[in-house]
Amino acid sequence: MMSNMVAALNSALDNIMKENANAVILGEDVGKDGGVFRITEGLLEKYGETRVIDTPLAESGIIGTSIGMAISGLRPIPEIQFAGFMFLGFSQLVNHAARYRSRTRSAFKVPMIVRTPVSGGVRTLEHHSESPEVYYAHMGGLIVVEPSGSYDAKGLLIAASKLDDPVVFLEPTKLYRLFKEDVPEEAYEVPIGKAKTIKEGNSLSIITYGTMVPVVKNVVEKRKIDADVIDIRTINPLDEKSIIESVKKTGRALIVHEASLSFGAGAEIAARIAEKAIFDLKAPVIRVASDSLPYPFPGYEKYYIPNELKVSKAIDRIMSV
Amino acid sequence: MKEIKFVDVGEGITEGHLQKWLVKDGDDVKEDQAVVQIETDKAVVNIPSPVSGKIKIFAKEDTEVKVGDLIATVGEGAVDAVPASAKTAPAEGRAAPQAKSMPAAAANNEILATPYVRKLARDLGIDLNSVHGTGPAGRVLENDLKGIANKVAAPQKLIPRFSEVLEEQHGEEVERVPMSQTRKTIAKNMELSWTIPRAASMDIADAGHLYEIVKREKPNAEKVGFKLTFLPFIIKAAVQSLKENPRFNASYDHEKQEIIVKKYYNIGLAAESPDGLKVVVVKNADKKGIAAIAKEIMELHKKVLDNSISIEEMRDSTFTITNIGSLGGGFLSVPMINYPEVGILGVHMIKDVPVVEDGKIVIGKQLPFSLVFDHRVVDGAEAVLFGNAFKRYIEDPEFLEML
Amino acid sequence: MKKEVFRGNIDYFQIMDENGNVDAALLPQYVDDNKILEMLKYMVLARELDAKALSLQRQGRAVTYAPLLGEEATQVGSGMALRREDYFVPNFRQHAVYLVRGLPLDLFFTYWRGYEEAQKIPESVKGLPVIVPVSTQMPHAAGVAFAQKYKNTGAAVIAFVGDGGTSEGDFYEAINFAGEWNLPLVTIIENNSWAISEPTKKQTAAETLAQKGVAAGIKRIVQVDGNDVIAVYKAVKEAVDASKDGPSVIEALTYRMGLHTTADDPTKYRSDEELEKWKLKDPIARVKKYLNGKGLWDDEKEAAFIEQNKEMIDSAIEKAESFVPDPKSMFENLYSFMPDVLKEEMDEAVKENFWQGDLQ
User: Fold this and answer.
1) Top-confidence residue, B92 or A170
2) In 3-state terms, chain B is what percent helix, strand and coil (to 5)?
3) For a disulfide at C69, which of A271, C43, C155, C258, Cβ 3.0-4.6 Å?
């Protein structure tokens, strides 16, 4: 069935709730309202208010209680309304979700999925367009996933629901309704921790994820760039192997993400390329990202988010060496 | 006997001030009894004895003590290590690793070159010091190495273009001949063809029946105005073989990595024109009879020879046959694939050869053929299957008579 | 128009005063002298254990330790009031609760020697691991309580939080969730009067910490003498019994007679007079007085009891000190699987012998 990401995620949640009686969805407005992006639409009617729970407005409380539920054998799927508000629950994620298993040497497990919309491009108010993936990926212990299409979104969410680990599931707001893909109605999994090569080529490797995937695709198609385009899909743990293999083949690496440049995922990927593939590099690794600024008000976002021109010029630069 | 050492009692303490002993030297002390009071940056702390026994005091009151200093022992006999220091991680028991002096940087460090070029130089056995870099600030570029690599491989003086050498050395002995448009097209097509990773499969078919039929029918054909040759039969056998092995009637889509299988059978025939090779096409060969094909071949040949052939008549072939036998020479050849097709069939001259039949040597008619194929699309085994099919049809009188 | 929209009150109660006198009207029937003797034994043992851990730290045989001295009644009273199926959620000072719930003592010492393996708490203890960031355990407790309700186990969850912890957002978020979801959660505010150097009056202008539960819509709220083990026991037991009907908040007024942790020096911020005043309210002394009067306890019995348990404590220490850490366990327990990139880091450390230490 041709579905946008909203429908795909809704279908995935439906599959998970149907299959696992211990799965519980909780968050602000997830019940009657179906979530502000309608991802949980219809689930309250189907599974009742003991399993689809409208919570008080308290991000730390939502994530913290989810941790308590998870160590007690439930599989909570909390939704945080916007990534910018998730920082209120940051302590619970980094102090507890990330390390509960390791600090108890696997005696306690935290099987939960924290879903939240990320990134900008939809002209929404401030604090509604953050790209926080690196905060969660940095300390280890949290799995950080960010799909760029409907098919992957459903498959990754279902795969996350099978893991006994805390997963931060980032959903690019801009891609929720941008395009449709063929999404099966039944449950299926897309492996977590595996990058996807969207397009193969020989002259350049473009490593990207999230909102930048369609931007990169457009540039590559419009200019007929002979490039490997890799959607990493999982930020942590990183599929280093796929990236290094591609860069060794092409000798050039361009990393594109919406999160701001400094200390971003691109820095991590570039460092790994430098360590593992520098003798195959014909040009310096180049990163294309938003500038090192906090996300601006919506009026300025078109000057902030990397566009096709910025990606295209980076390709010229990397190919000129 | 156990040691009492001053330890880090407060998260990062390194030293303290020993204020006073709470017991006297030689006193009997109890396990966990506080024996000494030490002031640190953070607090005044009482240090207890780890065991019961007589205490022997080493450190004086009102002195500075450092973390790790032995300040007393308790009990008789040899020193028995305090449990904490006795139980250590496996790593902690080992000798500390040696501090070595700084290693020398790898050679060629002062030369400007990217890591990729450095590795290339290492692989080619070139000392970067000896390379004249043509990049910015004398940076050694990939091309700078390639020039040297050629020299390393062929240590003659730097080679100018071969054509210049030829003209310089042989002057009037060489002549530059401009290429016809056909020749240029052939060159371009052959370069394209060369991008196909190819392999060849060769075999011999028994053409006894085929020979007999052609010999028998030739006069009849002449009566109705056309010349019967082996080729129409070969085309029909090839088409049948393609139907059994459809991947030979196909093209490889490099971009999408898919095979485009064609369900129509347009057989290209390599034909020599005054300008060079041309490929004429018998369209929908599967739907035409022997006579029709024979007539069409005649027509096409005539047009090639008088240069009246149209582009349309040379386009859209799905599989090509090159009839090397018609020129008389050769035994087996490896023809170039007609890009973007998957295969080409080279058929050679039918010859009389001695063959063993029921233990006796008889004269047989042999048709040697070679099949060159795109190995991305099909494998050798499939080529053999195609060859076997082709043989089966060429050798089958019933099939041939039916045509 | 004007009308009253809310009115509430919070009771304080004490059953046994600092001289060992019992308020017979308040003493519940289910608390007999045998029960009181059992409470005393746990409190004495807890104090021994605490002193031992402090001594080990001063000898360099334990890492930074947070002593419980003075808070035995609040912890033993709470721990004993739990039913077998109930869970408890500590922060970092509830050693006596672990003791009452049967945590193997070598794990207690292993934790305070600094090894995660200590947190492999046996399921039968029904306790969560030690939580250090103040009050962050509270939402977990609400989540565990939610799970009990969801799975209809009938179990209650008691959560401990300090006086300082009640100022944290997580405290309010958790009790608010508990109120809204009507969870079987019993929150015990172990008000030991000090948050390191800050007295309770620096935490809030509210007269009690218990009343914070009012704003969360919690109906069962009480303040007790936290140095009166019987009062604590009664309050917690009744809250646990009523947990199927909803959450409770209990504020236990007690006093941290020792250090915040071994890295702390309380003489910097509090007076000797205050400490001396609270020593008169010692939670153990009053029970001893009571049981002495009944002929059930005396110094001799106490010495014998301590001696009897010394061997158990010593062998627990010996076991804890013989624990050999395996640095690979840090990597192997991070996820349910081992990512390639992480394995590479571990393998490199093993191959290159990084764990050998600094250069000579």
Assistant:
1) A170
2) 35, 25, 40
3) C258
CB contact under 8 A, C360 and B45: no
Is this prediction's pTM over 0.90?
Answer: no
CATH of the domain spanning B2-86 = 2.40.50.100
Number of Cβ atoms within 10 Å of the Cβ of B363 = 10
Band of the pLDDT at C219, cuts 50, 70, 90? very high
Task: Provide the CB-side half-sphere exposure for B21 (13 A, CA).
Answer: 18
Q: Please indicate whether, in this complex, the C-beta atoms of C59 and B92 are within 8 angstroms of each other.
A: no
Has C269 been annotated as catalytic? Answer: yes
Are A86 and A61 a contacting pair, CB within 8 Å?
no
Q: Please tell me the distance from the alpha carbon of residue B90 to that of residue C325, in angstroms, as a whole number.
A: 8
Distance between CA atoms of residues A48 and A36, nearest Å: 19
Distance of alpha carbon B219 from the chain centroid:
56
Taking the CA atoms of residue A247, residue A248, residue A250 and residue A254 in that order, the dihedral angle to the nearest 10 degrees is 20
Residues in B touching C64 (Cβ below 8 Å): 10-11
C-alpha to C-alpha distance for A127 and A130, rounded to whole angstroms = 6
**Element of type H or E holding B167:** helix B162-170
Superfamily of the domain at C11-321: Thiamin diphosphate (ThDP)-binding fold, Pyr/PP domains (3.40.50.970)
Beta partners for B143? none
- Beta bridge partners, A112, equal A166
Tell me whether C356 touches chain B (CB under 8 Å): yes
Tracing tokens 């009690």 back to the chain, one arrives at C208
Fold category of B111-176 in CATH: Dihydrolipoamide Transferase (4.10.320)
Closest chain A CA to residue B122 = A279
CB C101 within 8 A of CB C107: no
Average pLDDT for chain B: 85
B183-402: CATH class: alpha beta
Q: Hey, where are the domains in chain B? A: 2-86, 111-176, 183-402
User: What domains, with CATH codes, occur in chain A?
Assistant: 2-182 (3.40.50.970), 196-319 (3.40.50.920)
Instruction: Kindly compute the dihedral angle of the four CA atoms of residues B181, B185, B187, B193, in this order, to the nearest 10 degrees.
Output: -170
User: What are the extents of the domains in chain C?
Assistant: 11-321, 326-360
Question: Is the minimum CB–CB distance between C325 and chain A shorter than 8 Å?
Answer: no
How far apart, in whole angstroms, are the C-alpha atoms of residue A130 and residue A120? 7
CA-based nearest residue in chain C for residue A103: C116
pLDDT in tens, C160-197: 999 999 999 999 999 999 999 999 999 999 999 999 99
Residue type, C71: E
The number of residues in chain B equals 403
**B34-39 sheet: strands from edge to edge:** B44-48, B34-39, B15-21, B63-66
Nearest CA in chain B to C317: B83
Task: Select from B45, B85, B90 the Cβ nearest to the Cβ of C324.
Answer: B90
Cβ-Cβ contacts under 8 Å, C143 against chain A: 64-72, 76
